[in-house]
User: Which sequence fits this backbone?
């Protein structure tokens, strides 16, 4: 059975969810919280963290904020799914559809964590009013590429320790970031191609009409 245009890209989103959740379950079942494993020297590590907030370790320290964030994620996920379906039916640029599928898969992956992990993995914060919608996202990818101490003469940050890149994130975060970044870089090609055929035809017709007008006037 052949997949439709829309189904092919929803399958990509589904695969992102599968890989994201598999990586999180591997970490959950085989590592202790805050345990760290060096993968490639010191600059790529698997570091098991629980993130009660947003992507890349950003936190929202508010009980209402966490619930609002989860509900926003669910609404965004549904909106992205609808947008992907609509763009697929419009035969949008395959690159754009692929990027939207990456974003959708990442959004679903983190929605699963926020909605269900508080119940299924019992990882909701102790002060959460309910484990539902208060699950903590499992993060694990850590790339501390380099670090140094700012010289004392540097204003405001002199003498302070600096680490690049400090956030710990997961595959869902990466999928969202990659999708958004590619769309931003390739937006002219993606959206011009999506709108191109009908607009090009209209431009051609308009051009022919304008070209024909002088001759028509002379014949008259």
Assistant:
């Amino acid at each position: 059975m052949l997949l439709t245009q829309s189904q092919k890209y929803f399958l990509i989103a589904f695969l992102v969810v599968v890989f994201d959740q598999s990586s999180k379950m591997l970490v959950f079942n085989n590592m202790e919280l805050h345990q760290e494993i060096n993968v490639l020297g010191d600059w790529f590590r698997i570091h098991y963290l629980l993130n009660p907030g947003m992507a890349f370790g950003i936190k929202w320290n508010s009980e209402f904020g966490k619930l609002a964030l989860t509900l926003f994620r669910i609404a965004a996920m549904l909106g992205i799914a609808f947008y992907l379906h609509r763009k697929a039916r419009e035969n949008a640029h395959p690159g754009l559809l692929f990027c939207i599928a990456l974003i959708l898969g990442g959004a679903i992956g983190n929605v699963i964590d926020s909605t269900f992990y508080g119940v299924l993995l019992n990882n909701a914060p102790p002060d959460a009013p309910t484990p539902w919608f208060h699950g903590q996202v499992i993060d694990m990818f850590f790339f501390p590429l380099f670090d140094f101490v700012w010289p004392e003469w540097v204003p405001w940050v002199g003498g302070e320790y600096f680490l690049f890149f400090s956030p710990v994130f997961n595959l869902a975060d990466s999928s969202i970031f990659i999708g958004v970044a590619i769309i931003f870089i390739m937006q002219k090609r993606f959206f011009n191609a999506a709108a191109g055929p009908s607009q090009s035809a209209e431009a051609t017709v308009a051009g022919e009409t304008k070209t024909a007008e002088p001759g028509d006037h002379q014949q008259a």
